[in-house]
Amino acid sequence: MLGERIVFNGLNSEVMFSSETVPLPELAPGEILVKVRLASICVSDVHTVKGQRIEPTPSVLGHEAVVEVIEHRRPESDLMKGDRLTFSIADSCDKCEFCLKGLQQKCTKLFKYGHAKLSDGSGFNGSYASHIIIRSGTHVVKIPDIISDRCAAPINCSLGTTMCAMEFVPKIKNGRAFVQGDGILGLYTSVALRELGYDTVYCSGRHSQRSELITRFGAIPIYNDEILIEEANKIDVVVEVCGVSNVINDGIKLLKPGGLYLFLGMVHPHSELHITGEQIIRKCLTIKGIHNYAPRHLDQAVDFLIKTIEKYPYEQIMGPTYDLSDLPNAMKVAIEKTYARILVQP
Predict the structure, then answer these.
(1) How far, in whole angstroms, is CA 72 from its chain's centroid?
(2) Predicted structure pTM score
(3) How far, in Å, CA of 321 to CA of 319, rounded?
(4) CATH class (in words) of the domain with range 169-289
(5) 13 Cβ contact list (under 8 Å, min separation 6)
(6) Where in the sequence of the chain do the CATH 3.90.180.10 domains occur?
(7) Which among 6, 12, 255, 292 could bridge 259 via Cys, Cβ 3.0 to 4.6 Å?
(8) What is the pLDDT at residue 238?
(9) Is residue 58 reached through a cis peptide bond, with omega within 30 degrees of 0 on the bond before it?
(10) pLDDT band at 128 (very low <50, low <70, confident <90, very high)
């Protein structure tokens, strides 16, 4: 059987993306051959093609996708040909110190889909391809019919990470939260906080055209600084999902004493913080970093979407769909950030 993959050759190559059609390798024990039904372009891939993030090359980028089982070598599982799946972006050993602590995303033998060199494993390691070979240590979850491919594609990155963050958010009566960022992580976080019982959730960002969508996700859109004065020392939880470090001082001002600050978006080297220890100590703040997620959070993400799919307009988060062969143009549109997610279909 042949598979197609779009190879990222690096920023300085004559051709950044090239298409290859090659035989699919035989499966090893525990592996699953899946076809990519629909992929979505994560901001991390945008950072890679803009040179803000360095990945090994040549490689197949992409890690967000909904896939379909072709065949597998997991005889103990109940997987069937044709099952739609989402899969953990990290393959882990489940034996090391970090896996045993529930931090499988920090496994000492970690492998991440869409972030590996072509020669590392099967060569079908990313979602910008017709197929992916899912490794033996990768957690998978079936997608029920109620969830469309468009809504399922980003589950295994953005929504899984959101569920990981919610694990650290306390349930507070009449709770007030502030989400810094109006991308897909901001929208997912807003709705997750509302579903957790927070009465007031603000969501700030740079895309004022998303204000109506933010409202439909249960949050109050903020596109000016007036609220920073009104809500100073009144917010229980601030969640940074925008990737911009200059918002952190604002977040600290918003938090009431004893508040919680979660960092999710600043996963890049240009994230220096200009804060003092005094700011944190005097307000008795807790600051927590969240990076990716563990297998249990992927289960929670699918369950969360099942419970809320008819309550919130998840379909409207997604932008247009491009053919796999048109990935370079899809990436250009993703860089513009007009849409929270651009989709790619083999």
Answers:
(1) 26
(2) 0.96
(3) 7
(4) alpha beta
(5) 57
(6) 2-157+293-345
(7) 255
(8) 98
(9) yes
(10) very high
